[in-house]
Design a protein that fits this description.
Two copies of one chain form a homodimer. In chain A, 45% of the residues lie in helices and 19% in strands. With 370 residues, chain A is α/β, with parallel strands linked by helices.
Chain lengths: 370, 370
Amino acid sequence: MFEILHKDGKARQGILTINNRSVETPFFMPVVTKGAAKFIDNVALKEIGSDAIICNGFILSVKPGLEVLEKMKGIHNFANYDGIIFTDSGGFQMYSDKLLIKTTDEGIHFKEPWHGEKLLITPEKDMEIQSTVGSDVAMCLDDMPLYGSDKKRIQESVLKTIEWAKRCKQSHDKTKAQKKSEQKLFGIIQGGTYPDLREFCARGIAAMDFDGYAFGGLAIGEPAEKTFEAVSAAIKFIPEEKPRYLMGVGTPELILQAVEKGVDCFDSRYPTMTARNGTLFTNNGQINIDKKDFELDKTPIDPSCNCFTCKNFTKSYIHHLTRLKEPTGHILKTLHNVHWIQNFMKAIRESIKEGKFEEFKHNFLKACSS
Amino acid sequence: MFEILHKDGKARQGILTINNRSVETPFFMPVVTKGAAKFIDNVALKEIGSDAIICNGFILSVKPGLEVLEKMKGIHNFANYDGIIFTDSGGFQMYSDKLLIKTTDEGIHFKEPWHGEKLLITPEKDMEIQSTVGSDVAMCLDDMPLYGSDKKRIQESVLKTIEWAKRCKQSHDKTKAQKKSEQKLFGIIQGGTYPDLREFCARGIAAMDFDGYAFGGLAIGEPAEKTFEAVSAAIKFIPEEKPRYLMGVGTPELILQAVEKGVDCFDSRYPTMTARNGTLFTNNGQINIDKKDFELDKTPIDPSCNCFTCKNFTKSYIHHLTRLKEPTGHILKTLHNVHWIQNFMKAIRESIKEGKFEEFKHNFLKACSS
């Protein structure tokens, strides 16, 4: 399933294969919550180098609903995406102020976002949902305290996350055997920004032999040093041969730091969300296309980029569409940002293959700060 | 500039060439008001067979502004569209309840939509705007009474439209000579649904020798018989050899009726606007993809359509995205509707070439009603 092909310091380059679908690591997954990313379709995502995406198991179970997904033969067929599909448990969404009622030992009590119906999602229920959705990789249901919670609350959350991970694993193993499914299951490590709690959680989760390990509850507002202190504290207790996934990270700078520490996998709304606001990736750092400076700029967003948008349109035109909040501007900007980040991931992989990751990182950051 | 190649009854098939760009007639123009259509880019529009589009001269003169358009060498370069660009005068927009202050003999007094500044657009000013925007075809500034206005008001509007057309022509001839421009100018015929006023206006406008003639102020709420009574009353006074343009019409049924009467050119928001609401063209009539019937439908929107959307996605998936109002659903539906209507126009052209237009029309309408 996961093969490491090259190492360069702690950075790794490999290949993850599930259900005859492959993605080279390290990789970045666009967020396709409801079965479509914002302003870009799944065929285009794949074409521009997204060999894996992440959907939201819980949200898909409400709309279109599990019955539809079953009859349409799973999410790959339904959404016409022929790459690796991860599903998130949906826990992240349930922990919003508007939806969360409470968490108990049993599971998460929250309001269903469309009809306001009160629901309880247990680890077992969540595994069943993700199995029916038909993703290649399911994620454990975890308990995620908000950033800024006190240590006691985070301690509780770590214990609950470990307990739920056990139940997820048992339930997943059972379903997998029954359905003869190849679906993989990743454990999630919580612990806020406390290195001791991250270590404790990592030891607990790693003991259960998951197919991969994720760092959850990070990149939610804490400073980057804290993010990587937490990752470093946990990563040494994760088996070397398993894929490691830093959830919610999607900026080039953070991806570089994480790859350096041995992370293989990322997801984030960042590239698509900021595209709509006009924040665009370039090899010289991010630009805000909304700025007056670009009103008469005849060059593409990034002259070294060969995406559809950069091949066809000027900054001046994209600036105009951004000022007017035109949806076609959102399409062109989203396409650029996703294409750019997939190209960036490819360049990272190449640099590891050649044993030049540090050089690549250094040059990239230097170009961005100049 | 305009060559009629085939006739079939009153229906005509020809080719319109301006500035080395050509479009076969009859043709349909997507509405690209602000330099981009909604949810589809200009390169895609051209690729799926839109060899002409219509932009709004006045709106572009405000945003991005004439200075930007001049420096970016005109609308074709700015918006990267390599087909024929018509510009509307913008009069249609100024006649909204929110913007119109009054019309005088001089021109239209109205509020600029972004800053609320009071503006006066005269025929001369409008010609200058459209010349700077750099379209291939400019439209005269006309006076457009709302549907339901009394005959006296429409009579006044006809007189004003004729008077303004004269001033547009004079001003356009002058600018054209100065700039050595190849831009064409189309006259607009008003007259509401009164055949006598349409005839009067057509005679007045035709006497001025425009490069083409448009029917304005129709398809704004009146029954279809009234639309075509008005077109029929006017069309016989327009020189046979000039292109004829029915403004604001974009449904297959109305296009067929108009082509039958000798109309060559159409524009409308209909295909893009209704796509977003879920109304989609098929060879068996329009469907509303929002309907529960399509929840589990594994077939494409139109099985005979070879657009990107129909080749890749099922009705079930499009239904799901429509229910959630997902922008990526809007993209896929817009692409289908524009592709479909351009294919429909192509089929109309083929049928005229083969002398089988009536048969085509009959079969199409029959398939839609079955």
